[in-house]
Amino acid sequence: MRATESTPSFYLKTLKPEDLEPYYHMVSRNRERLNDFFAGTVSRTQTKADTKAFLEWMQQAKAQKQYYPFVIVAQETGAFIGFIDLKNLDWHLPKGEIGFYSDQDVEGQGLMSLVLPQFCDYCFTEIGLHKVFLRTHQTNVATQRLALKSGFTREGLLREDYKTSSGAYLDLIYYGKLASEASNSLRFEKVENEHPDFQRLVSQLDLELAKRDGDAHGFYDQFNSIQNLRHCLVAYQGTKAVACGAFKAFDAETIEIKRMYTLMEFRGKGIAGKVLGQLESWALTLGYSQAVLETGKRQPEAIARYKKSGYNTTPNYGPYRGVENSICFIKVLH
Asked: What is a single molecular function from GO for this protein (predicted)?
């Protein structure tokens, strides 16, 4: 199932003990569906007390780099609408297995076609895995199609490799994906503002903005110097630099997103959203909790991207106060 207009906007959030209530209710809603292929989850979430202990175990396992659990959260409502994890880690290779499910209320809306590639990118670029794999039953045609669409290769059939909660042994199809095969995925590099790829992309951005802004370009250009930017990011597809972004401190708790740009031929693939997500995650690690940004009303695609990524309009700030062509956004970071 491909993503459609009805596919909910989402973000991934590390599952923690304080998520007991929404996590327990999500599992309870889907318990019958999960019974065969998430038997461990079902058996360890029979009560809230069981679930609390399970979440505490997850937290300990993550601290030991043996398990990475995430919930999929609806951007608009904050509801838990799915789950994805990295498990069975072998740090000698290193590799790990991906498991996932979506909530019954969003089943069939193409959610996982967006989540799985993003999670694979995270496994390769942030965790540093060489390989990820997943296993699925022969009857699960949707997951088989999803795996192939997400760049996995079918590597074989594992005979009687899984035991259901009823005691049945099942054959599973094994799909693998290597970091070196992720040329259609993105690689992100944190760079200095003097990095040639970052400067090259920014130069192309400035040329495009000069055409769009017209006579107003001189006004905006004075706020877009990269000289004082200390947190810059370049996205690569293969060896080609295809997008960039940056941020700077706005106040003690807030960053300002700057210099977002994607090459024309790579637009429409969700790359800008991924760059934005990387910048937000970076800011969170530095202790920031909020992001603001400004864009022009003559950039409808940028406005749509920011709204889809969970940004809300806010009164124009700083030098953009009273500027008719400017529109400012704000987002609380998770």
From this structure: acyltransferase activity, transferring groups other than amino-acyl groups
